[in-house]
Amino acid sequence: MCAREGAETVLLDGPHSGSTKSWRALWSALRTSTGEESNGSSISVREHCLDMTDIPSLFEEALSRKKARWESYGDLRYLRLSDDFRGNPKGAVSWQGRLVPGYPRIGRIFRLEQGLAQQFAGPFWVEEKVDGYNTRIFRAGDRVLALSRGGYVCPFSTDRVPDFLDLSVFDEHPDLILCAELAGPENPYTEGGPSFVAEDVELFVFDMMRFGRPGFLSRRQAQAIYQRFAVPTPRFFGRFEPSQWRDVRAIVEQLDTDGREGVVLKEDRPGGRRTKYVTAWSGVYDIAVRAADTVELPGDFFTGRILRMALYLDEVERGLDADLERDLGRAFLQGLTESVRRFKQDGHVFHDFRCRFRQKGNAEAFIAHLRGILGHTHVVQRRLEQEDGYWVLEFEKEVPKLTGLLHQLFRGAAIVD
């Protein structure tokens, strides 16, 4: 059955978890309300990989083990997988009885020659890796929604999707799920952005799935949709064999020179493997952006990036140079010294964010959403005003652990290290 073969989690909507009988009744009601029992053109239960006898026990177990949670978006409720469960990735969502699969985590290789030979038995596609945040976009009734990687409906992403996509793609493909990266300096989740997005944000669609079905559309299928609906995508560099690792290395070296993140490598077969490989520049950039979060992150966030840089420099036969050493040192110190300055000035350490919304209500919903996740005291709204056709939201997110540590250190506390 699908759940045991690594397919996506199937979740049912409803007000609470209950008996097997109540779950089956709820599922029947949902299928009737969405027209699946009477509409001959709907996707069959088999196509959704649902096994009616397993649904109640599977998700009663997920809820009882605190692996699934009820969430709200407006007046609607849905189930979100809050942790990996039975081989299914965190972030899988059921919306009105239909499954939006979670997006799987992708491993990375540290050596191209050996990594490509080990990961791929045949040809693979190479595309640019974009530094942003992951979202899944789908049609739900008369609206198009966007999920965060963790499975929350994101008011910001949902608000901005019409700026970047021809939404008629969902008229022709109503069961389509677009997997994308939203990237740019004015996103509400991560500081910074790719060098080729100078302001605001842009959308890059890199994969496609369908409701309730395991895996991704093939490169050929996805490409046809990309072209027909002018879907924005990352750069594609072509199809390669593992023996062509030097050609892939040349692509990555150019990306490093251009100040870009790296590549994603996708095996050219159904269910094929995926991996990623990044530039030395991306390591310095990640450290610079997150240095202020030093005490918030595990130590291997930083040491792992330094190791990746060392292995990359060795593989491309590039030695250390004064510029790289200076950039790496600055990356660590600049963010932390700015945090100390802000603490002395304000008594807290904050990250500043600015983002644009098409509708004021979505900006207000986003702040409420963020406060619900991080807590009211850690999110401070500074401004929400109209500007050039958008509602511009400016807010601050506190860095709580560093704020607490600096409070102690400025009071003269001694720390054993």
Descriptive key words:
417 residues, alpha+beta, Nuclear Transport Factor 2, Chain: A, Methane Monooxygenase Hydroxylase, Chain G, domain 1, Alpha-Beta Plaits, 4-stranded antiparallel sheet, 12 helices, 35% helix, 23% strand, globular
Judging from the principal axes of the Cα atoms, what is the shape? Answer: globular
**Number of helices in the DSSP assignment:** 12
Mean pLDDT: 84
Rg: 23 Å
Largest sheet: 4 strands, antiparallel
Describe this protein's structure.
This protein has 417 residues and is an alpha+beta fold. Among the domains are: 99 residues, Nuclear Transport Factor 2, Chain: A (Roll), CATH 3.10.450; 64 residues, Methane Monooxygenase Hydroxylase, Chain G, domain 1, CATH 1.20.58.2250; 65 residues, Alpha-Beta Plaits, CATH 3.30.70.2160. The chain contains twelve helices and 15 strands. The protein has a four-stranded antiparallel β-sheet with strand order 1-2-3-4. A four-stranded antiparallel β-sheet has the order 10-5-11-12. Helix 4 packs across helix 11, helix 8 runs antiparallel to helix 9 and helix 8 runs parallel beside helix 10. The radius of gyration is 23 Å and the shape is globular.
